[in-house]
């Protein structure tokens, strides 16, 4: 049994060993800790034994489920490219791109973020997450039709060059050595070469794979390009890439609190990233959070009532029967969305 496929799912019946002893009880939510017991007792669990997974907020949305399905599909695509060296463009166009467009149309920010924030599959979910966020930004910028779909494809494939990076580097639980970091940075060049040589993929898609770590101030890689030397799609994907990386839990670090992520995005808009895209992104993302419940940095639960155009990461919130304009509280911020 591949526990990774069923993690979080609920058992619909008692699971017993050959002696009739109950090893896992009905109602158990499967976690990694159950894997040893399952293997030791040679248990078999099938789809008929489980039901829909539960999350910390007690539900799983259609968007979250769709994102998880896309992540599994992208994992298969990733492995296929690693083995065969060819990008299955038709499959991506037919299955993943329409699903990304569907999710990007949703207005529930919590469901979107809960779905794209990496679990134990960062390498694959990151591509889907960046695809969704980039598509949202593209729509906010007025992109439509074929141009928007091209951005979605480029964003989803931006990290495809990682197929040529060894897993022990990709999944390293600590800081890279200088040599490992140099190897990791080459994924941009590998991605460009894979996509440039692929049939039916526009060169602009390959260019995004090459440039998504370049920065406005010329301090990015692989070539230190800056400003108008960067493709506009690369600038959009760069914003989405940084946001998703900071807001996801990784092997070697926890996800940053929402207010810190958004504050960093604002600061990066002064030199590192395209300011118009950064400002638009932060403002529109926070607008989507209006009406949502959040945990504040002091642990209290509040509802976001209004976003201030001049200070979008310091909204007006209601906690209990009190109202707080977070612009006036230096030590009180939005820690995370919870619903």
In short:
This protein has helices at 3-6, 35-40, 62-84, 89-104, 109-116, 122-140, 145-156, 167-170, 178-185, 187-196, 203-211, 232-247, 258-268, 275-288, and strands at residues 10-11, 15-16, 22-24, 50-51, 293-296, 301-308, 311-319, 322-325, 334-337.
Key features of this structure:
two-stranded antiparallel ribbon; globular; 47% helix; 14 helices; five-stranded antiparallel β-sheet; 339 residues; alpha+beta; single chain
Output the structural class: alpha+beta
| Helix and strand run | HEEEHEHHHHHHHHHHHHEEEEE
Q: Report strand %.
A: 5-15%
Q: Radius of gyration from the CA trace?
A: 21 Å
Number of strand elements = 9
Largest sheet: 5 strands, antiparallel
Poorly predicted runs: 54-58
Binned, the helix content reads: 40-55%
Q: What is the tally of helical segments?
A: 14
Between the first and last Cα atoms, what is the distance in angstroms? 33 Å
The backbone outline, from C-alpha atoms, is: globular
Q: Quick check: average pLDDT?
A: 88
Could you give the order of strands across the largest sheet?
A: 8-7-6-5-9
